[in-house]
Design goal:
alpha/beta, TIM Barrel, eight-stranded parallel β-barrel, 8 helices, 8 strands, globular, binds the ligand O=C(O)c1ccccc1N[C@@H]1O[C@H](COP(=O)(O)O)[C@@H](O)[C@H]1O
Length: about 230
């Protein structure tokens, strides 16, 4: 999985798909960040995506009914939960929207596995995958921070988790290869690291990000084949 979040319009969605991005993230219902798109604009883009590209709702919503309703209106089948959603509410979401794939964010704030390790074990039976991401103490944001966290913790979580782990937080073309080799995630996700100063996606940086990520995943595959 190579995901890029923060799609602004159809032209950008096409640019990302043509560069080899496998999943596009649509952040909506964000208390901390300004939303780039309305629900209707996002739904119109998602309806026109090639079936080979996955659309992912990224949200801080933490009530099952709200999450399921928004996914239905947008036409997405994958949701990335960045809010403080309880295990009971995730279970409710699975019951009312069994068609949804659920990715739960795990925010790595320090260099200790303890709390986040327990979180992964607690939510693992309820979700399809985890995404480790960073925290910005200045804004309270738990995503789109442009900050890297301690990759050793993500590596330990990837080993501990019975579900695939996606790595995010401060990734860009310059560091994604090293990040993948170090953490061995199932996928990577970036937002601000592939943008121009005006907030639009930078085609060169996106292409370079995808090439570097693919090269790293190939290296991991080759190392695995060698035993
Ligand atoms: O992408 C967003 O706007 C967003 C907003 C709120 C929560 C999560 C969000 N997206 C996730 O942010 C990270 C990567 O951001 P960056 O590369 O550090 O800028 C990734 O998980 C996105 O899916």
């Amino acid at each position: 999985m190579i995901q890029i979040a923060g799609v602004m319009d159809m032209a950008e969605a096409r640019l990302l798909a043509a560069a080899g991005v496998t999943h596009l993230g649509f952040p909506l219902r964000l208390p901390v960040h300004r939303e780039d798109l309305s629900d209707a604009e996002a739904a119109a883009i998602i309806a026109r995506l090639s079936p080979s590209v996955g659309a992912v709702l990224i949200t801080y919503l933490d009530e099952a009914r709200d999450v399921a309703g928004l996914c239905r209106r947008l036409g997405v089948r994958i949701v990335q939960l960045h809010g403080e959603i309880s295990p009971a509410e995730v279970l409710r979401l699975r019951r009312i929207a069994p068609e949804l794939a659920v990715i739960k964010s795990v925010i790595v704030k320090d260099s200790h596995l303890g709390k986040v390790g327990a979180e992964v074990l607690n939510y693992a039976p309820l979700v399809d995958a985890f995404i480790t991401d960073s925290w910005d103490p200045a804004t309270g944001a738990c995503g789109a921070t442009g900050r890297v966290h301690d990759w050793d913790v993500s590596r330990q979580l990837a080993e501990l988790s019975p579900k695939p782990l996606i790595l995010a937080g401060g990734l860009g073309p310059e560091n994604v290869r090293q990040a993948i080799i170090q953490v061995r995630p199932a996928g990577v996700d970036a937002h601000t690291g592939v943008e121009r100063p005006d907030g639009r996606k930078d085609e060169k940086r996106v292409r370079s990000f995808v090439e570097e990520a693919r090269a790293a995943f190939r290296e991991l595959d080759a190392a695995r084949d060698r035993g």
